[in-house]
Structures are given as structure tokens and as C-alpha cells.
Amino acid sequence: MRAAHYARAEPFVTPDEPDNSGSPADGPPSRGSATLRADLQQALGPTVTLGEELPRGGMSRVFAAFDETLQRKVAVKVLAPDLAESFSVDRFRREIMLVASLQHPNIVPVLSAGEVGHLPYFVMPFVEGESLRARLRRGPLSVRETVSIMRDVARALNLAHERGIVHRDIKPDNVMLTAGVATVTDFGVAKALAAARRGGSGEQRAATPRPATLTSAGTAIGTPAYMAPEQAAGDPTTDHRADLYALGILGYEMLAGTAPFHGASARELMAAQLAGTPPPLERRRGDVPPELRQLIMQCLQKAPADRPATATGVVRVLENPDLVSGSYVVPGPSRQVRRREMAGAGMMVLLLAAVAYGFWPTRAPAPDRAASGAPAAPAAAPAGTTLLIPALQSPAGDATARQTAAGLTEQLVARLAQQPGLRVAGPPLADSLVAGLRPMTGGGRVLRLEGLVQRAAARTGLTVRLVDSAGFTSWGSSYRAGGGGDPLQVQDSLSAAAVAGLLPHLAP
Asked: What is the full DSSP assignment across 155-191?
């Protein structure tokens, strides 16, 4: 009967991804599940009723439960036996309870901790929503969403760092999204594992020491795909700036769709974190404001001293509303003056580009001006790639889909127009050029981006394909976004995902 309290909610912990992160894959419950469940229920007492076992990663088993005293859902994590057998349970419990002092809206706290059958467990609130990992499976996030999540995570880190607590395992699996708010889970787990494994006076290590890596020992050090260089090197002086490095990777992945060194093995990831250079973010996505790119790449500096000194400075940058629009400047003129300057300069650049590329209607020179020896018209722009984006299509009779298609068309044009060396024409010019009602000007390669917007239930779908001048499709993909929220956020998400997928296919 108690299942009604938690059956429909997603657990605050999601399975580690079996990809390049180096995380262990999910697996079936180990033998002795019934015994562990009975022992855990007895340890928790009559006021807590265990529910179903939830999907798990390699470091723990997770159970949903309902606490009658608190009248709330909770999640109970029991560490895996292969972790617990080589460290002090008492020391782990003491370390993990330090997190109970972290009271912050963006931190999932520890409510209690204990031991069952020589296995440590701890109880945390049951957070409804989805993990950032689950959200990333649907594609990259918009700039606005990325800034919001990074800001929430940075606020959580700021409080923890002020209390001397370093997370050491910031990754999409440990960030929960609920009603537009991000919360960080598993604070202190990595530190507790490391401290308990080292042991203290009167405590002995296991006879056979285990390598302190995620792939073999849960979160004892961190996850390779999000691990700072000093973590990868096993530097004992690793401090809070390792969390800022992981935050930079988090921001990079939200915008680009994959982490900087995606596709590498765990060993290759460790080497890349130590000496590899992340691909410039602007190559992966062109609509990211320069200031946000600069902040993310600063967090990804190899030397801790080259990263932001504290999470406070990161929060300060991310809290500036002008960061999303790309007009954030410090120091410099006032926001209003800066916006006017940028708007004027941007309009001038667009006008000059339109004339140079032949997209702006011009009149032939008057006879007397031509005969007077006036300077000749500037030479044609160098041949490059021209991308035509005619109006996206939508099913007949669906007014909402038609409006979404119009907004998405504008966003795609705006995002792609920022790519160096790419000429972009949107409606109505693109429609005229595609229909042959207007001749093309200039040379180079001509491509066409076609798309269809459809709605089904509470979701909006975008299907796009890239067509060359001969009519052959060179690339195509489909994207989906929840349609029950802000329509602008839906458009942001879909256009960002489409641009991220398209860019690699625009290279000559």
C-alpha cells in the first residue's frame, strides 16, 4: 500500500552512464537482496517503510521509502559490499554526516546515516524530477537553461566550499532538475569514501589495496570524464577548484551535447584531463555568448591557479542577466550604452554583409554618376558556403505548430548566421531562391536546410535535413522537447540541438 508514495517519481539518483565517463554500468541486484532488505528495514525502524529498489550505479544500492515521522518520501542508499570491506564504516558515517550541516535550496541534504550488516547507509530526501544526465539524452540545452543550471550548481558549491566540503564528483548524474531548479546530490560521499579508505589510528587498511578510481571503487576519487587534472594525478592537495573544473565540463556538455573528450576510454580520459586541450566551444556551437564561453574555458584550465579562485566569482558572473544576451561587460560602459553600441554595430555589420553578398536589393548607378568616374563597386565576396533556410513546415490546421515553426526558423537563422565563413539566407529570401524566383549571387557551395515541426500530446518535434544543390540529403535528424512549458524554451532547446547536430556537416 505504501507504494503510492513513490511509484511515479524518478529517484534522486540515476544509473551511471556506461559511456566515456568511466562509470560502471547498471546491473541486476546482487544475491542476498531479500536479506539486505529485511536487515535494512529492521535498522530503519517501524516509522520508515521501504519501497521498491531503484536503478543503481556501481557504488550503491538505492531504495525508495516513506518516512511516517517526516511524512515525506526518502531515498536510502546502501554502499556496495566491495567498497565497504576495505574501509572504516565508523569513519565513513562521521564524514557523511558533515553534509547534514549543509542547508541550501540547491543541495540535497543527508537526513541520517547508519549501518546494516557492516554496510553503511544514509538517507536523503527523495527528489522528484529528472537528472541532468536524463535531460542531456534529449540533446543540448539552450543558453538560458545552461546558465540557470550552472548558477544553481555554483551556488551549492559556494556554500559547501565555505564549509570546507569539496564534492569531488560533480557530473550530470549528481544534478537533479525539478521545476526549473537544479539541486546537487551526493555531497560528501567522495570525501567520506576517501577518508574512510585511508583509515586512522587503530584502523587497518585492507590487505590488498584497491585503486581509488571510480571504475573500481565508486566515487573514491571522481569520474574520469569530469575529473580535474590534479584528481587524475592523485594529488593529495586537490581542493575546491577541482569542483570548478567539473562545473566547466558540465557547462561545456550542456551546450555542446557531449563532454570535451567524448568517446575516449577511461585511460584515455585520464590522459586527456592531464594534458589534452578541449576543442574550442565555438567550434561546437556558435550561439554561446563570448563571456559564457570565456567563463567555461577558464574553469577548464589545467592549473588550478588559472581557474576562478572561488565559486563566489562564478556565481557573480552567472547571476548577471546580461550574460544570456551576450551583452555582459565588466568593466565598461553602462548596460544601456553598451546595448545601444552593440545594436548599432550589429546593424551596420548586417547591412554591409547584405550588400557585399548581394542579398540586399540595390539600384543600378545613375548614368551621370557612372560617367563621372565614381569608384567601381566592390569586388564580390570570396566563394564560400551559402545556407538557405526556407520557412519550416508544419501540419495544416495546427496554428500552434505553425507559430512554433516560424519562431524556430528565425532562431535557426540567427544562430547559424554567427558562423564564420557561412552565408545564411532565411525567409522570404531563401524561399524565393529555392523556388528559382530570384537568381543566386556569388559562387561557392549552396546547401538548403529543410524542416518539419509537429506536435504530439505535450511534446514538440523538429525534423530537419540538409540538402545539397543536386537534391541529395547529406544529413538529417529529429529532436523532441516537452511542449507543456514555456514555448520560447521549447524553441531554444530544439534550435540549439539542431544547430549542434548540423554544424559538423557544414564543413567543406
From this structure: HHHHHHHHTT---S--SGGGEEEETTEEEE--TTHHH
Q: What is the pTM of this model?
A: 0.57
User: Do the strands 72-79 and 444-456 form a parallel or antiparallel pair, or are they unpaired?
Assistant: unpaired
What values do phi and psi take at 418, rounded to 5?
-85, -5
The answer for 440, left when phi > 0, alpha when psi is -120 to 50, beta otherwise, is beta
* 169 assigned to active site: yes
Residue 180: CB atoms within 10 A of its CB come to 13
> What is the pairing mode between strands 444-456 and 473-482?
unpaired
Q: How far apart are CA 239 and CA 233, in angstroms?
A: 13
- Which residue, 490, 446, 491, 480, is CA-closest to 466? 446
CA distance 113 to 91: 12
Cα(19)–Cα(16) distance, integer angstroms? 9
- Angle, helices 143-162 vs 487-502, to 10°: value is 100
Q: Give CA angle at 103 (98, 106), nearest 5°.
A: 115
Helix (H) or strand (E) holding 144: helix 143-162
Q: What is the pLDDT of residues 246-284, one digit of tens each?
A: 999 999 999 999 999 988 888 888 888 888 889 999 888
State the catalytic residue, choosing from 169, 243, 287, 492.
169
